[in-house]
Amino acid sequence: FIGKWRMKTIVTFSSCPDVLVGSTTESKLEIKPLMNSKIQNSSIKAFWKGGNWKKSIGTVKLLNEKEAITERVTRIKTSRNENWEAVLIDHLNLEEKDIIHTESIVIQYKNGNIVGEYKTYSILTRLE
Asked: What is the mean pLDDT of each run of 10 residues along the chain (128 residues)?
């Protein structure tokens, strides 16, 4: 899982009015080891960057050599002073050394109120 990845994502289900099924995004993901971690299952961190959302950081919990889960929160403040937040839970499957398939559940909030949720499927390809 360690490395830099290009992530292509498609929305597979949505109850959010502004998130359409079939819409796609691209982002980047970097997974790094934590230098001072004492707990093996949380010994790597992931850093996402894509679209207008601010960078998102989450801890990767290894289930085995080929599977991991992450939990993360991303935030954005719009020009209309709206605070958007997305809580994401990702299930990562390392298919080959250079390909990860990911299914995610995203719960979206606007100004602290839930807007809805959506699901995505992503393919990650190693950059380095």
From this structure: 92 94 91 64 68 72 91 86 91 93 96 96 92
